[in-house]
Specification:
Keywords: Membrane, Transmembrane, Transmembrane helix. The protein has about 200 residues and is mainly alpha-helical. Helix content is about 80%, strand content about 0%. Helix 1 (about 25-35) crosses helix 4 (about 115-155), helix 2 runs antiparallel to helix 6 and helix 3 (about 65-105) packs parallel to helix 6.
Length: about 200
Amino acid sequence: MLKWPWKKKSYKGIKIKPANTKPHDSYLIFQSYSEGFNNRRIFLELILPIIFSLLAILVLIQSNIIVTAILLKIKEINSQIAPMVAIQTGFNMTCLSLITSFNKDKNTFSKVQENEKGSVLKQLISSFAYCVFIQTGILIFGVFYNVILDGLFGLNYLKELNIFLKKFITFIFFTLWLSFIIHSFMVFLRNVILVYKFILVSIKK
């Protein structure tokens, strides 16, 4: 039988493998951190910070504070919390090293079932890694905000905005930023409890 040279080659049955795309590291950290979510954690680490922030906004609205004063208040908050956040970041990084090295030597999770051991250790480490990640972001953005704030006051575009729109944007930004800061503190408090329990379990062994 003759084979025509211009006959197209059939690719029927050949499977094309999809490209091996890996998710971003920040997504992996958040995914591992959120695996252990329950109603109590959602309330303490997500809902409660928003409640505190909304209460703060209500107080500011009642006091008839101007937009410039709110922006300066955010700058003041950034300056005041920066040393505290830096200390907490160092604490979390130290705890990460402590957990990984101590568990390697003493096998703290030896009583946990083999198929669950990796998941428990992963959630424990991811909680500290997540806290380091967001607190580093708070430090970087806080410094950036404080540096450019004076320049924002001089922008003609912002001066021409409607006063209601400026207040709305400022209040939303203040609420989100304060919620994010309080959220990082709540995660840090949970990490303190976790490392306390980890040390107790390690000592008992």
